[in-house]
Amino acid sequence: MALVVQKYGGSSVGTAERIRRVAERIVETKKQGNDVVVVVSAMGDTTDELLDLAQQVNPTPPPREMDMLLTSGERISNALVAMAISSLGAQAQSFTGSQAGVITTSSHGKAKIIDVTPGRVRSALDDGKIVLVAGFQGVAQDTKDITTLGRGGSDTTAVALAAALKADVCEIYTDVDGIYSADPRIVPDAKRLETVSFEEMLEMAACGAKVLMLRCVEYARRYNVPVHVRSSYSTKPGTMVAGSMEDIPVEEAILTGVAHDRSEAKITVVGLSDQPGYAAKVFRAVADAEINIDMVLQNISKVETGKTDITFTLPRELGPVGMEKLAKLQTEIGFTDLLYDDHIGKVSLVGAGMKSHPGVTATFCEALSEAGINIELISTSEIRISVLCRDSELDDAVRALHQAFDLGGDEEAVVYAGTGR
Amino acid sequence: MALVVQKYGGSSVGTAERIRRVAERIVETKKQGNDVVVVVSAMGDTTDELLDLAQQVNPTPPPREMDMLLTSGERISNALVAMAISSLGAQAQSFTGSQAGVITTSSHGKAKIIDVTPGRVRSALDDGKIVLVAGFQGVAQDTKDITTLGRGGSDTTAVALAAALKADVCEIYTDVDGIYSADPRIVPDAKRLETVSFEEMLEMAACGAKVLMLRCVEYARRYNVPVHVRSSYSTKPGTMVAGSMEDIPVEEAILTGVAHDRSEAKITVVGLSDQPGYAAKVFRAVADAEINIDMVLQNISKVETGKTDITFTLPRELGPVGMEKLAKLQTEIGFTDLLYDDHIGKVSLVGAGMKSHPGVTATFCEALSEAGINIELISTSEIRISVLCRDSELDDAVRALHQAFDLGGDEEAVVYAGTGR
């Protein structure tokens, strides 16, 4: 008998009718002889409605109270799914994140999971019950306050529970059929991937693939939890995210896909003194503003001036914060100018095969130049090549690369419509 | 510095605008130098909407999951009020019933409070914070599941917290100006009562006065918590429920008011053997069906037959259950017939003055007979006279008694519109 953890997104339980359908799928899994733990996000618009209410009473609501407010959404959906399950004759029990032993840090709105102690979940399973756990939420280890995990929180809850319960698989039900070789909205012949290694999925997620959040994949990789991405609306096979790329025979290693990201902005620090420690000052300043930077480029120093430029990318919504922080420190750090550009796009090619297939970078650059796309910045990892271009050229870049590396398939893709938490 | 517990009903927080107004009143109380603990019911229609959702997924939802579902309503309203308070510059923290230490039995949907251990509430108060506690809910002592307290649960939560925190007063904010000498919808010149003793309020509540639920008054009396009933929409003085009628000088003791109740039905067991133990069999049968009976009448036995009739009243919604239970046992108990009547009304006169004013019963009966109302059953306590009549005659009966005992005032009454939980 296997232990299966299933996670359903907010759109999968958006109406009473959908809740009943989800319940049928859950009971079916139980009838097949599995122990089943289910994590459900808040129903469709619940979160937006609660956010709207909060805005009406306080434009800047205290994070602790926001968490108290928002976590009620998952309680509602989980209780309703439990009711739907019992109406099908099976036994179900729903637990809050706190009851399920999801222990987190106390940083409200973006808490991190410290530990999962699923004692009550385990004993409910031992009683033959289907267990529902409210996703996206936990309880702070120190303050005992209710916390939320932020974006991708429900997926992470599911994976964390699967790890703590030593589940055989964590099934993430969403509104796409799986992980694709590119965003089907941009590349109509994008191919669904049967399996993806953790490392490849990490790179895809880090480069903008939205089906799985990075933190969820990181968690799954750390605890080696196979994650099965499937559609809530079909019984198609989906994509299995599991295993290390080290286990893929070199000969079989291939290119996974093309990811893109239009959520970044670019800051260039001009005329920075090309001495040890000056770049560090810049990045310390940015780090102090709690901004994670992504790509970095340092130009070759101009000998006559002994000055250099440093360019880096950061989340677009944090662009103004970063600029302000650096501007304040202009004299202290000592640079001549600051440039800001939020019309950039990032396209990435990911795949373990990169190591064993020479000339990938060459083909990559040729494909873009043939498409008339100018490369503004390049960064690479062992299994990834990423470049910046104009955001207006991003879609063309994705299509050009997808075709150049022959990643297409013939299966028809379900267009991705965005997941909730 | 006083410690004040305030409770606001669902209609008082039905919209963002009302929530802001409630927040202002709370902050005002804090500014006056009081420690403030607030219990808020779920917003206006939230509970009905959740019940409707539950019905859609399962016509007979499991009580445990119903409690998980419904308690989210109070979490939402309390978090929102906390946000509104902090938008006014004061510090607020909201707690679930469980976090506030409301320990209950595990009978979902109608749990009883076993203990209140408000450690977190106390320390938040000590930090100078305004504390919000989700009403109507607690945590089961044995199963650690989330429970709801049933009707009047939020009022009871407030009184229980006031008792555990040794508060100076528990203010119940509702949509009437206080306790009236009769229902103002029936008696336009009904008078608002300045003060009512616990015993009198118990009788009023037990006889159908709906402003305060019986269980809440019982709790307040047991722990001697003064309950101040006030309007959410005005600053009128309201009614103070406090003290024992024993403390009222006999000379000043007066009649409190006229209560009515149209929620009962009447069952008559005909031709019961007039031997010791037969009545007991009847009431044991009813008790086994978990039905609380109210008034009881045993007719004088007919000597020639040695048979008697027993009539009792019970909650109307349980009438069919009671009839079914008794019908099953007809042969075992041995009676000739069962009569059911759900067109009855009960009118009661309550007041400590009854003891010291002779002739109250006479005046009572005269008033009703002059109004052409036939008395079907009488029961009395030390400070109460109750009679059954036709439900169609109930309003006339209330008016007749209210006038006969000159209970009217001239202050204009706010018409009672029903409270939530």
From TrEMBL, chains A, B:
<keyword id="KW-0677">Repeat</keyword>
<dbReference type="GO" id="GO:0009088">
    <property type="term" value="P:threonine biosynthetic process"/>
</dbReference>
<keyword id="KW-0028">Amino-acid biosynthesis</keyword>
<keyword id="KW-0418">Kinase</keyword>
<feature type="binding site">
    <location>
        <position position="47"/>
    </location>
    <ligand>
        <name>substrate</name>
    </ligand>
</feature>
<dbReference type="Pfam" id="PF00696">
    <property type="entry name" value="AA_kinase"/>
</dbReference>
<dbReference type="InterPro" id="IPR041740">
    <property type="entry name" value="AKii-LysC-BS"/>
</dbReference>
<dbReference type="GO" id="GO:0005524">
    <property type="term" value="F:ATP binding"/>
</dbReference>
<comment type="pathway">
    <text>Amino-acid biosynthesis; L-lysine biosynthesis via DAP pathway; (S)-tetrahydrodipicolinate from L-aspartate: step 1/4.</text>
</comment>
<dbReference type="GO" id="GO:0005829">
    <property type="term" value="C:cytosol"/>
</dbReference>
<dbReference type="GO" id="GO:0009090">
    <property type="term" value="P:homoserine biosynthetic process"/>
</dbReference>
<dbReference type="Pfam" id="PF22468">
    <property type="entry name" value="ACT_9"/>
</dbReference>
<feature type="binding site">
    <location>
        <begin position="7"/>
        <end position="10"/>
    </location>
    <ligand>
        <name>ATP</name>
    </ligand>
</feature>
<dbReference type="GO" id="GO:0004072">
    <property type="term" value="F:aspartate kinase activity"/>
</dbReference>
<dbReference type="InterPro" id="IPR001341">
    <property type="entry name" value="Asp_kinase"/>
</dbReference>
<comment type="similarity">
    <text>Belongs to the aspartokinase family.</text>
</comment>
<feature type="binding site">
    <location>
        <begin position="174"/>
        <end position="175"/>
    </location>
    <ligand>
        <name>ATP</name>
    </ligand>
</feature>
<dbReference type="GO" id="GO:0009089">
    <property type="term" value="P:lysine biosynthetic process via diaminopimelate"/>
</dbReference>
<feature type="binding site">
    <location>
        <position position="74"/>
    </location>
    <ligand>
        <name>substrate</name>
    </ligand>
</feature>
<comment type="pathway">
    <text>Amino-acid biosynthesis; L-threonine biosynthesis; L-threonine from L-aspartate: step 1/5.</text>
</comment>
<dbReference type="InterPro" id="IPR054352">
    <property type="entry name" value="ACT_Aspartokinase"/>
</dbReference>
<dbReference type="GO" id="GO:0019877">
    <property type="term" value="P:diaminopimelate biosynthetic process"/>
</dbReference>
<dbReference type="InterPro" id="IPR036393">
    <property type="entry name" value="AceGlu_kinase-like_sf"/>
</dbReference>
<dbReference type="InterPro" id="IPR002912">
    <property type="entry name" value="ACT_dom"/>
</dbReference>
<protein>
    <recommendedName>
        <fullName>Aspartokinase</fullName>
        <ecNumber>2.7.2.4</ecNumber>
    </recommendedName>
</protein>
<comment type="function">
    <text>Catalyzes the phosphorylation of the beta-carboxyl group of aspartic acid with ATP to yield 4-phospho-L-aspartate, which is involved in the branched biosynthetic pathway leading to the biosynthesis of amino acids lysine, threonine, isoleucine and methionine.</text>
</comment>
<feature type="binding site">
    <location>
        <position position="185"/>
    </location>
    <ligand>
        <name>ATP</name>
    </ligand>
</feature>
<keyword id="KW-0808">Transferase</keyword>
<feature type="domain" description="ACT">
    <location>
        <begin position="267"/>
        <end position="343"/>
    </location>
</feature>
<dbReference type="InterPro" id="IPR005260">
    <property type="entry name" value="Asp_kin_monofn"/>
</dbReference>
<keyword id="KW-0220">Diaminopimelate biosynthesis</keyword>
<keyword id="KW-0067">ATP-binding</keyword>
<feature type="domain" description="ACT">
    <location>
        <begin position="349"/>
        <end position="421"/>
    </location>
</feature>
<dbReference type="InterPro" id="IPR001048">
    <property type="entry name" value="Asp/Glu/Uridylate_kinase"/>
</dbReference>
<feature type="binding site">
    <location>
        <begin position="210"/>
        <end position="211"/>
    </location>
    <ligand>
        <name>ATP</name>
    </ligand>
</feature>
<keyword id="KW-0547">Nucleotide-binding</keyword>
<feature type="binding site">
    <location>
        <position position="180"/>
    </location>
    <ligand>
        <name>ATP</name>
    </ligand>
</feature>
<dbReference type="InterPro" id="IPR018042">
    <property type="entry name" value="Aspartate_kinase_CS"/>
</dbReference>
<keyword id="KW-0457">Lysine biosynthesis</keyword>
<dbReference type="InterPro" id="IPR045865">
    <property type="entry name" value="ACT-like_dom_sf"/>
</dbReference>
